[in-house]
Write a structure and sequence with these properties.
477 residues; 6-stranded mixed beta sheet; 5'-nucleotidase,  domain 2; alpha/beta; 5-stranded mixed beta sheet; Purple Acid Phosphatase, chain A, domain 2; single chain
């Protein structure tokens, strides 16, 4: 009976080096060192010694840390090529533009797969939709589906010249073709749609045996079943690998074993990869290791509603601008900073694009609408309408929310400072990233001549000692 092993990495966000990771315990959040390409390489070598492995990457790989973004993503392909990845799909890679992503993909020894990304003029696919691999005596067809929200919620330059679909129109026919014409034994969907979206899509799409899911950073300790499809997702930051051992009989899965494997400090780094990472990081080391201050507790982005990391970022913006109401996009990525020294590199990894800070005037009605829209995009009953990360980060307001209510009726009470928000009142707000306050919302938009990561680093250096804070910005009632 043929047996193959699928290994998944998703949402590593260019954390080529080891870093702190947040873990839930009965007493709260704790931090441990995890990840890094050198430890991943060592773990893969151990597994390859006794198993036939197909290593697949769900994307968010070439973008996410300051060195990666500073280099335009070009430092990563030579390192990734050493890991023996078979194929990947993408999301934040489109931050370099569709043409930029294509250019960077040409430096990879493996294909980028995306059945749902098309040239705006010709309608032709920008990437191959699938690839077939021979593994352990089996033919495995892998279909890629990239994140579909790039042209819907992200800056326009991310999707210039391209358009994105869910892939619903092509995935089932591709799976059928792979079975019928290519005689594959196993069909794998390599997805960056997000776990809720994948589960709904799979309920509408026959023919998929395994879905490797990405985007939503879930740590699944056991596969989720969507009909006959096994679905796994394996955390983020390269802190975990998902291993799925499959027994294949008659072109079907007859048995499986799954493990979510923490890439922890007990794994000895691969010396060759460690040296290669060190060489790549050399130009960034002085800036990365400069100590800015001291954390009197852990800062992280581990929570949906509010995070200590983003509260620190927003406090820095407010202190610099004097504007009491501040918004930021709710990124999922960004490794924690535990108690101890705070380095410039760790701070810059929170906002690797170093986006500009702007200001805008909002009416009370617009402020309510902004929050209601964000709640709907985050918690929509229809997974295909979910287009957010975590809940929009804010400082200077308090929102009381009934999350089970229908769209437009979730916000029960809203305060700026201690005062209830009035629809006809005017509120000055500063923000970073176009997603925090979308274009067309508010009036009097103006750049403030500031860059977010620079402001954050300067603030931490001035404060020196910082404690993590939660303000109860959103209250579920």
């Amino acid at each position: 009976m043929p047996e193959i092993t699928l290994v998944q990495i998703n949402d590593s966000h260019a954390y080529l080096y080891e870093h702190p990771e947040a873990f839930a315990t009965g007493r709260g959040t704790v931090y441990r060192t995890a990840g890094g390409y050198a430890r991943i390489a060592s773990l893969l070598a151990r597994w390859r010694a006794d198993a036939e492995i197909l290593f697949l990457d769900c994307g968010d790989t070439l973008h996410g840390t300051w060195p990666a973004v500073e280099s335009g993503g070009v430092i990563l392909p030579p390192l990734l090529n050493r890991l023996g990845i078979a194929a990947m799909t993408g999301h934040w890679e489109f931050a370099y533009g569709p043409a930029g992503f294509q250019e960077r993909s040409r430096a990879l020894d493996y294909p980028v797969l995306a059945c749902n990304v098309y040239d705006e003029r010709s309608g032709a696919p920008l990437f191959p939709p699938y690839r077939i691999f021979e593994v352990g005596g089996c033919r495995v067809g892998v279909i890629g589906v990239a994140c579909n929200i790039v042209d819907k919620t992200m800056p326009a330059r991310f999707s210039e010249g391209a358009f994105f679909t869910l892939g619903l129109e092509v995935i089932a026919p591709l799976a059928a073709r792979l079975r019928r014409d290519e005689k594959v034994d196993l069909v794998v969907l390599l997805s960056h749609l997000g776990l809720p979206q994948d589960l709904k899509l799979l309920g509408m799409t026959p023919g998929i045996d395994v879905c490797l899911s990405g985007h939503t950073h879930n740590r699944l300790f056991a596969p989720v079943r969507a009909g006959n499809t096994l679905v796994i997702q394996s955390g983020s930051h390269g802190s975990f690998l998902g291993r799925l051992d499959l027994q294949i009989e008659g072109g079907r899965i007859s048995g499986y074993r799954h493990e979510l494997v923490e890439v922890g400090p007990d794994i000895a780094p691969d010396p060759g990869m460690a040296e290669a990472v060190c060489e790549v990081m050399r130009p960034y080391e002085e800036e990365r290791t400069a100590v800015q201050g001291e954390a009197q507790g852990g800062f992280d982005r581990f929570a949906m509603w509010e995070s200590t990391a983003d509260n620190l970022l927003l406090a820095a913006i407010r202190a610099k601008t004097g504007v009491p109401l501040v918004f930021s996009n709710a990124w999922r990525y960004g490794a924690p900073i535990p108690a101890g020294p705070i380095t410039r590199g760790a701070l810059r990894d929170w906002v690797p694009m170093n986006p500009p800070v702007s200001a805008v005037t909002l009416s009370g009605t617009q402020l309510r609408g902004l929050i209601e829209q964000n709640l709907e995009r985050t918690f929509a009953a229809d997974p295909f309408q979910q287009m957010g990360g975590y809940v929009k980060r804010a400082l200077g307001l308090r929102a009381y929310v009934k999350i089970e209510n229908p769209p437009g009726a979730r916000l029960q009470a809203l305060f700026v400072g201690d005062a209830p928000v009035r629809d006809d009142a005017r509120y000055e707000a500063s923000f970073l990233t176009e997603q925090a306050v979308p274009p067309g919302v508010g009036e009097g938009r103006r750049p403030l001549g500031l860059k977010a990561a620079d402001v954050l680093c300067d603030y931490v250096a001035a404060q020196r000692s910082l404690r993590p804070e939660l303000h109860g910005t959103y209250v579920l009632i």
